[in-house]
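Query structure, 308 tokens:
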């Protein structure tokens, strides 16, 4: 009797994650390539860092399996280059290293790698680790793209104070403030770090362009810190706009402290009111501003409230 069960369709190329494998050993490339294809990945291969960079120029992969030690530019330098390139920095890099080479493992994490697998490779383990990192990176990327579409100026700093990611709007404002020179990223990072050191915010006067404000929105996963940037136009009539929104003086006070990163309990202590009263004020504020989250309210507050 002939089965009528139809074969499961293969995923389209557009839906298949792309993995770049970088290793100078042909046998390793072939073994990983076969395993990845069997798992439904599209595979790109490179024998060294130079070839790998060429692959990135053609198509940005969803993940990289990277040999730590290669002739020419080693895997660590290649990873640092990827993480220093904003358009590529989101790609998770998994290092492949020797079993006893703990120094290489530490270097791999220090230069931006998310994980490592030891040689000789255990293919099921490699596939499991890679799938987790590719999935997490895609979820993070979708969230970041949502921020991009909203036009919000958002920056994420890693545990060492380096810019791990920034939205297009944040990039534009930081280049307006610090220029587009090679060292501008370090100067921008140092300024953003002052917002973390101050515990709340940092400002920068841009003359005829207005004033750039960086607000510390707190820590996220793995100790990363998120900052929200807002550009206040020069001579903006904040009082008139607040009047149009019809916030009461008490609601304005609550919104101001929320925008400075204070919790509801902190605001209650500062303003001498109950925690429940703060919640009620924020409900009214969110409704009048037309937002649903604290971050969105803080973003609007940065544009409307006069800065001290």
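Result returned for the query:
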């Amino acid at each position: 009797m002939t089965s009528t069960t139809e074969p499961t369709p293969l995923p389209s190329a557009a839906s298949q994650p792309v993995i770049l494998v970088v290793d100078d050993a042909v046998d390793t490339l072939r073994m990983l390539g076969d395993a990845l294809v069997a798992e439904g990945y599209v595979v790109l291969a490179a024998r060294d860092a130079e070839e790998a960079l060429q692959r990135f120029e053609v198509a940005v992969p969803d993940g990289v399996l990277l040999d730590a030690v290669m002739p020419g530019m080693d895997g660590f330098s290649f990873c640092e280059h990827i993480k220093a390139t904003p358009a590529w920095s989101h790609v998770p890099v998994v290092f492949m290293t020797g079993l006893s080479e703990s120094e290489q493992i530490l270097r791999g994490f220090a230069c931006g790698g998310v994980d490592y697998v030891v040689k000789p490779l255990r293919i099921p383990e490699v596939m499991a680790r890679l799938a987790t990192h590719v999935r997490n990176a895609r979820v993070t990327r979708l969230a970041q793209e949502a921020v991009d579409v909203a036009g919000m100026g958002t920056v994420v700093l890693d545990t060492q104070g380096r810019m791990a990611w920034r939205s297009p709007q944040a990039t534009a404002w930081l280049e307006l403030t610090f220029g587009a020179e090679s060292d501008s990223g370090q100067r921008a990072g140092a300024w953003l770090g002052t917002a973390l050191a101050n515990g709340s915010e940092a400002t920068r006067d841009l003359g005829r362009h207005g004033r750039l404000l960086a607000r510390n929105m707190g820590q996220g996963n793995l100790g990363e810190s998120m900052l929200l940037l807002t550009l206040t136009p020069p001579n903006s009539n904040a009082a008139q706009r607040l009047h149009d929104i019809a916030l009461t003086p008490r609601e304005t006070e609550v919104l101001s402290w929320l925008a400075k990163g204070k919790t509801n309990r902190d605001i209650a202590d500062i303003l001498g009111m109950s925690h429940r009263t703060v919640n009620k004020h924020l409900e009214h504020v969110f409704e009048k501003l037309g937002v649903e989250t604290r971050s969105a309210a803080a973003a609007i507050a940065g544009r409307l409230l006069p800065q001290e």
